[in-house]
Write a structure and sequence with these properties.
With 177 residues, this protein is of the alpha+beta class. It contains 4 helices and 6 strands. Strands 2-1-3-4-5-6 form a 6-stranded mixed β-sheet, covered by helices on one side. β1 and β2 (75-77) form a beta hairpin.
């Protein structure tokens, strides 16, 4: 019986199990990071659509004072104001709040995109789709490489412990030559 070979195999198996346990322990920390990456990807994909880029370029070039704009035929135009009596109080206060922030609302209604909201710097704040989905602007998340620490330690700690115990045990039982 070769004790050394058996212990080597045991250390690899226990190390693999420890690495797997480390992977399961880190999963609750990885899930939010992964979700943030996918949300950022959805936003960047939507922001790179040709319709959005054309509307964004036109809205940035627009120098008027209106905060609610329509995009049609490759240019931004000011919508005609509704009659004074038809605006509800809720709409009035929403307009006041929108103007105070300095954001621009660009209605597109083309290619499944209903509206762009631009911040004061002219960057996309959110994209509203015709389906009702809204994608907010977000910063690109960074991947914390410390998440690899659990699986790596989960492998190497048991592996090194068994290898060390095997080395110590061989010292007691090996015959001197």
């Amino acid at each position: 019986m070769d004790i050394r070979e058996g212990m080597r195999r045991l250390s690899l198996v226990v190390g693999f199990l420890g690495g797997s346990a480390g992977g399961f322990l880190v999963y609750p920390e990885v899930k939010p990071t992964w979700d943030a990456c996918m949300y950022y990807r959805n936003f960047s994909d939507a922001a790179s659509l040709p319709t959005v880029q054309k509307a964004l370029k036109s809205a940035r070039a627009y120098r008027g004072a209106a905060h609610k704009l329509n995009y049609a035929n490759g240019e931004v135009i000011e919508p005609s104001p509704p009659p004074h009596n038809t605006a509800s109080k809720d709409t009035f206060w929403e307009d006041i709040e929108f103007q105070a922030r300095g954001d621009k609302d660009v209605s597109i209604n083309t290619d499944g995109i209903s509206m762009l909201i631009l911040d004061t710097a002219g960057e996309i704040s959110s994209i509203h789709f015709s389906s009702g989905e809204v994608v907010q602007a977000t910063v690109r998340p960074t991947f914390p490489f410390s998440l690899f620490l659990y699986p790596i330690l989960g492998f190497f700690v048991p592996w090194a412990a068994i290898r060390t115990l095997t080395w110590i045990g061989e010292g007691f039982f090996r015959a001197r030559t």
